[in-house]
Task: inverse folding
């Protein structure tokens, strides 16, 4: 039997394979990570952690069709773990469009029909505006 | 600019339009989302059996910045294989002040307008008096008082 720690390790290795993690992005304060940067910024990255049976997926950068399959795969693998709760943190996202929204809605639907383990942490700026525009504050399970 | 109709073109197009719009003081969040949705539509729906190109153009007039995304695909037609939520066009409509769709069996052209801030126009109106003041000073550049 695989342990939860092995699940996390496998997921982390998986994420490392499919995303180019740039440590400098993680050191930047959130207020500096804005859309209005040069054209080579905004690359989607994610960070995974497992603590006290809570699986956390932090999202950074821009979530569009190029990044949506990667996020979908990671959430599905988190759903396959034994975590008590899965938290998707949107606060580090700089941009989201309908392709990213579709992944979040699909994950929330699966969660509702399963054990309801999925929770979201709110985004800021453009992400929050799109959530509001699409009426997702009521449809997605936010922590607050 | 022309880009291949592949997912990697979506951020490229979005960043190009944002870089263009930044110099005119446009609302960059609206520009980015609308462009992303329009280009995503081309990538997902325009060329169902093969490769194709995305054409992206941006220009501005006194009051608006205009972004045009077009393709030579199948035009707007129901796609039974689509797994999208149908949010793309409504989001474009919410972001742009005007949207025009030119649809044909040979492709779709989406023209989106975004209002520019009036302060740019105000600044433009002040150009002539500034030149007049310069002439009144005898055409000599003097240091600004601090």
Result:
């Amino acid at each position: 039997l695989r342990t939860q720690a092995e699940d996390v390790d496998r997921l982390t290795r998986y994420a490392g394979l499919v995303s180019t993690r740039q440590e400098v992005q993680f050191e930047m304060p959130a207020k500096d990570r804005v859309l209005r940067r040069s054209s080579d910024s905004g690359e989607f990255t994610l960070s995974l952690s497992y603590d006290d049976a809570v699986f956390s997926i932090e999202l950074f950068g821009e979530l569009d069709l190029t990044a949506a399959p990667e996020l979908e795969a990671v959430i599905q693998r988190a759903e396959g773990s034994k975590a008590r709760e899965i938290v998707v943190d949107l606060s580090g996202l700089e941009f989201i469009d309908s392709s990213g929204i579709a992944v979040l809605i699909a994950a929330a639907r699966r969660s509702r029909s399963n054990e309801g383990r999925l929770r979201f942490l709110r985004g800021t700026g453009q992400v929050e505006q799109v959530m509001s525009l699409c009426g997702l504050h009521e449809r997605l399970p936010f922590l607050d | 600019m022309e880009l291949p109709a592949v997912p990697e073109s979506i951020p490229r197009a979005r960043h190009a339009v944002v870089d263009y719009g930044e110099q005119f003081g446009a609302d960059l969040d609206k520009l980015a989302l609308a462009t992303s949705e329009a280009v995503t539509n081309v990538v997902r729906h325009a060329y169902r059996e093969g490769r194709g190109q995305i054409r992206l153009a941006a220009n501005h007039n006194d009051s608006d910045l205009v972004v045009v995304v077009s393709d030579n695909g199948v035009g707007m037609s129901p796609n039974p294989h689509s797994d999208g939520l149908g949010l793309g066009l409504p989001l474009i409509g919410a972001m742009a002040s005007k949207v025009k769709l030119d649809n044909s069996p040979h492709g779709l052209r989406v023209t989106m307008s975004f209002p520019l801030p009036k302060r740019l126009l105000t600044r433009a109106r002040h150009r002539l008096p500034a030149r007049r003041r310069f002439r009144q000073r005898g055409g000599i550049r003097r240091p600004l008082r601090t």
Summary: Chain B has a mean pLDDT of 83. Residues 50 and 101 of chain B are 23 Å apart (CA to CA).
